[in-house]
Write a structure and sequence with these properties.
- The protein has 627 residues and is of the alpha/beta class.
- Among the domains are: 419-512, ANL, C-terminal domain (GMP Synthetase, Chain A, domain 3); 530-621, Orthogonal Bundle (Non-ribosomal Peptide Synthetase Peptidyl Carrier Protein, Chain A), CATH 1.10.1200.10.
- Helices cover 32% and strands 22% of the residues.
- The protein has 18 helices and 27 strands.
- The strands form eight sheets. Strands 16, 17, 18, 20, 21 and 22 form a six-stranded antiparallel β-sheet that branches. It has a five-stranded mixed β-sheet with strand order 11-12-13-14-15. It has a four-stranded parallel β-sheet with strand order 4-3-5-6, sandwiched between helices.
- Strand 23 and strand 24 (425-428) form a beta hairpin.
- The longest helix is centred in the first third of the chain and has 18 residues, at 47-64.
- The two termini are 38 Å apart.
- Mean pLDDT is 84; it is low at 1-15 and 601-627.
C-alpha cells in the first residue's frame, strides 16, 4: 500500500489505494491481522478477529436479503464497528441509531430510511424490537453479538464487497428545519478520502490509538473510526454518557489514546473538571470541533497535556465532513479570543458569498469539492436547496458565515439561519419549535438559543402561548418533549406567555422575549439533611441555580448527561466517594439520591414524588438510559 505522508504545500498526494471502505480495510487487516483494531468496553478485537466478525455479520445480513440500507442499534463499542463493516461487506449502506434517543424518534428514522433489517446486540435487543415494532415496515431484528465473538481470522479474498466507490456508505440523520430529522447520504469514496486526509495530516500510524467519543450517528465518529481502521491504528470507542466523565481520563490513559477528538464541551469537562489525577501524556494531537473554540481551550492543552501536543480546531458539516482545520503546534502563540477554524483541507475549496452571491472576503461559506455528500434522503440527485454546482464542480452552501483573515485562515462568524450547535450537535430551532407547538394545549411557540449559566454551554429556551383560556404546565410540556427529542434538543426552560411579541413588521421580536430567571445567591430550603444540603449545593454550583428543592428533578431544571457527570466529580470531592453514574440517573432528585446514598428509604412524601416523577420521565423518554 502506498504510504501517505504530510505535504507542506497542502496539495493532494497521489496514491493508488482502493476507493471503497472494505477494500481499504481488507488491505490493512491482511497486512496486520494480530494488531489491535478496536479497544472498547465490550471487547478488544484484532484486525483479524474484526475481519472475521464482519464476515459473519455480512453472512447474517445476506441471509435476510434486505432491501435498502441496514440499520444498527447497538452499544457504543466494538459491536457497532463490527456491524458497520458487516453491512458494508454485504453491500448495504448503514444507518446508525443511538440507543439513548427516544423510541419515537428512532422509529421515525428507521421507517424514513427504508431499512428492512435492524442489527442489534444483547443489551439492546428488547428495545430494538420495540423500535422496529413502531416502524410501518416492521424490519427484521438480528442480534449480532454471537457473530462478533468468533475466535478466528478470515482470508482476504472473502473481504470483497459488491459496492462501488460512488455507492452510498451511510445515511446519517441531523436536525431538520421542518420538524423532522433529515438524512444525509455519503459515498464510499468520500469516506475513504476523508479518512486518508485525516491520516496524512496527523501522520496516523499503527502505533496510534484514536478516540471515538461521539455517537456513531455523528460525522465525527465516522472520521475517528475510519482514520484508525484504514491506517492500522486502533479505534477506542468510549461511551461518555454511560461511563461518565469521571472515567474518561482513566480510560484515555489506560487505553493509550494518542489522537483525541471531541467537542469543546467534553474537552473542557475532561481537563478543567475536578478530580482528574491521570497523566494524559500519550495524547499527541487534540482535535476539537462542533462548537466555538477559545484561547482558554489552547491554554488547557498547554497546561495539562504533553509538551509536544498539537492543538487543532476543526470545522466541518455532516454534508462535507471536515472542511478546514487550524493547527497550533506547541511553539505557536496562543491566539486572542476565538480560535480561527483555519484553512481548507486538501480537495476542498471555500468561497465566501455576500448577500448577492458574489465571492469575497466575508459571507456565507460555500464549499466547492468533488467530495460533497450525495445529497439528502428523499431528494433525488442531491437536489436539496443547499447543493448545487459552480463552474462544473459540486457545491454545498453551509449556512455558516466566515471572514477570511489576512493570513488566509477563516474566522467563524456564526450562522446565517436558525441552526445552532448544542454540545456539538446540530440543532434546527425550527424543529424544536414545531414539536413544542404541536403539544396539546399549545397555540404558539418559539425557541431561542442562549449562553447558559452552567459552564457557558449553549442552551435552548422555549416560549409557549397556551390554547384558549388554558394554562401551561412547563414541566409537563418538557416531559412530553423528552419523549420526542434527544436531551441536547430539550429546552432548559419553557416560559408561558400570553402572546408572542412581534416587531412592527409582524415578525417575532426575539429581543422582547424574557430571559429565564437569573440565579441569585445560593440558598437552601429548610429541613434538608446534611447530606441533602451537600447534594443541593453541588447541583446549584453545577447548574448555576440559587436553590434546589428536595424533590426537583435534575433534568427538569437544566441538567443533562454531561452535567450529571460533572455532578459525579464534585460529589466525589465533597463526599470522599464516587457515586456510580447509574445511581445518579436512577435517583434524579436531591431527596431520593441522599436517601439512597445514606442507605435508607425516602420519606413517604419525598419518595412518592421522586418515584412518580422518575416514572413519568422514563415513560416519556422511553428507554433513554439504555446502552
Amino acid at each position: 500500500m502506498t504510504a501517505i505522508h504530510p505535504d507542506a504545500t497542502g496539495t493532494t498526494v497521489e496514491n493508488q489505494e482502493p476507493d471503497t471502505i472494505i477494500a481499504a480495510f481488507a488491505a490493512i487487516s491482511a497486512a496486520s491481522p494480530d494488531a489491535p483494531a478496536v479497544i472498547a468496553d465490550d471487547g478488544e478485537l484484532s484486525y483479524g478477529r474484526l475481519a472475521a466478525g464482519a464476515t459473519a455479520v455480512a453472512e447474517r445480513v445476506r441471509r435476510q436479503r434486505p432491501e435498502g440500507p441496514v440499520a444498527l442499534l447497538c452499544r457504543h463499542g466494538a459491536t457497532t464497528i463490527g456491524g458497520i463493516l458487516g453491512s458494508l461487506l454485504a453491500g448495504h449502506p448503514y444507518v446508525p441509531l443511538d440507543p439513548t434517543f427516544p423510541r419515537g424518534r428512532l422509529a421515525y428514522q428507521l421507517a424514513d430510511s427504508g431499512a428492512g433489517l435492524l442489527l442489534t446486540d444483547e443489551d439492546n435487543r428488547s428495545f430494538a424490537e420495540e423500535v422496529a415494532g413502531e416502524a410501518p415496515s416492521r424490519p427484521v431484528v438480528v442480534d449480532i453479538d454471537p457473530a462478533l465473538n468468533i475466535e478466528s481470522t478470515v482470508d482476504r479474498d472473502r473481504l470483497v464487497s459488491p459496492a462501488a466507490p460512488d455507492d452510498p456508505a451511510y445515511l446519517l440523520y441531523t436536525s431538520g428545519s421542518t420538524g423532522k430529522p433529515k438524512g444525509v447520504w455519503q459515498s464510499q469514496r468520500n469516506v475513504v478520502f476523508g479518512a486518508r486526509n485525516h491520516i496524512r495530516r496527523f501522520t496516523i500510524t499503527p502505533a496510534d490509538r484514536t478516540s471515538v467519543l461521539t455517537s456513531f450517528g455523528f460525522d465525527m465518529a465516522v472520521t475517528d473510526t475510519f482514520s484508525a481502521l484504514l491506517s492500522g491504528a486502533a479505534a477506542v470507542p468510549i461511551d461518555v454518557r454511560s461511563s461518565g466523565l469521571a472515567r474518561l481520563a482513566t480510560l484515555l490513559a489506560e487505553r493509550g489514546v494518542t489522537i483525541y477528538h471531541s467537542t469543546p464541551t467534553v474537552y473542557r469537562y475532561l481537563l478543567a473538571g475536578p478530580g482528574r489525577e491521570e497523566e494524559l501524556t500519550d495524547i499527541r494531537v487534540v482535535l476539537l470541533g462542533g462548537e466555538e473554540v477559545t484561547a482558554r481551550d489552547v491554554r488547557l492543552c498547554r497546561e495539562h497535556l504533553g509538551p509536544e501536543c498539537v492543538f487543532v480546531n476543526g470545522y466541518g458539516t455532516t454534508e462535507v465532513s471536515f472542511i478546514a482545520q487550524h493547527h497550533l503546534p506547541p511553539s505557536a502563540p496562543v491566539p486572542d479570543g476565538i480560535v480561527p477554524v483555519g484553512r481548507p483541507l486538501d480537495g476542498i475549496e471555500v468561497l465566501l458569498l455576500d448577500g448577492e452571491g458574489r465571492p469575497g472576503t466575508e459571507g456565507e461559506i460555500l464549499v466547492r469539492s468533488p467530495h460533497i455528500a450525495l445529497g439528502y434522503h428523499g431528494e433525488a440527485g442531491g437536489a436539496g436547496a443547499r447543493f448545487g454546482t459552480w463552474e462544473g464542480e459540486r457545491t454545498y452552501r453551509t449556512g455558516d458565515l466566515a471572514r477570511r483573515l489576512p493570513d488566509g485562515t477563516l474566522a467563524f462568524l456564526g450562522r446565517a439561519d436558525r441552526q445552532v450547535k448544542v454540545r456539538g450537535h446540530r440543532v434546527e430551532l425550527g424543529e424544536v419549535e414545531t414539536r413544542l407547538a404541536d403539544l396539546p394545549g399549545v397555540a404558539q411557540a418559539a425557541v431561542l438559543a442562549r449562553t447558559g449559566t452552567a459552564g457557558g454551554d449553549t442552551e435552548l429556551i422555549g416560549y409557549a402561548v397556551p390554547s384558549g383560556d388554558g394554562e401551561l404546565d412547563p414541566a409537563a410540556a418538557r416531559d412530553a418533549l423528552a419523549g420526542q427529542l434527544p436531551d441536547y434538543m430539550l429546552p432548559r426552560a419553557i416560559i408561558p406567555l400570553t402572546e408572542l411579541p412581534l416587531t412592527v413588521t409582524g415578525k417575532l421580536d426575539e429581543r422582547a422575549l424574557p430571559d429565564p430567571p437569573s440565579p441569585g445567591p445560593v440558598t437552601e430550603p429548610e429541613g434538608l439533611t446534611e447530606l441533602e444540603s451537600v447534594i443541593a449545593r453541588t447541583w446549584c454550583e453545577t447548574l448555576g441555580l440559587d436553590s434546589v428543592g428536595r424533590d426537583e428533578h435534575f433534568f427538569d431544571i437544566g441538567g443533562h448527561s454531561l452535567l450529571m457527570a460533572l455532578v459525579q466529580l464534585r460529589l466525589a470531592s465533597s463526599l470522599g466517594t464516587k457515586p456510580p453514574m447509574a445511581t445518579l440517573f436512577a435517583h434524579p432528585t436531591v431527596g431520593a439520591l441522599a436517601a439512597h446514598l445514606a442507605g435508607t428509604a425516602t420519606t413517604p412524601d419525598a419518595g412518592q414524588v421522586a418515584t412518580e416523577r422518575a416514572a413519568r420521565r422514563r415513560q416519556a423518554r422511553t428507554k433513554r438510559g439504555r446502552r
